[in-house]
Amino acid sequence: QAPLVESGGGLVQPGDSLNLSCTASRRFYDTFSMGWFRQAPGKERAFVAAIGWGDNSKYYTDSVKDRFTISMGNAKNTVTLQMNSLKPEDTAVYFCAADRRRYISHTYSDEHEYDYWGLGTQVTVSS
Fold it and tell me: Are 123 and 18 in contact (CB under 8 A)?
């Protein structure tokens, strides 16, 4: 089983909202900073949002600012991504990732800096 498990994806119409969740499938001693990436059909996986556990700093790619909100969950090593005003171009498989670093201001958008990944959840935005 993958170390992280995503949920909450689905098929929605433009303008709708979805809330993605990510939880660890097993107990980790470490606390992780968390990130979301997405991969659209025929494209490379790309950064969406991240949150550093050391200072709760949040980072977003420009196309989702003011529409998406990343938050740490109540349980350790859980994270949510609230997605509002969804657009067809948000259609992708969304992946959750975990990074052992407390502060990720220099690394948050680089997928190679993350230690663990989930298998992804499909988000489709279509009328």
Answer: yes
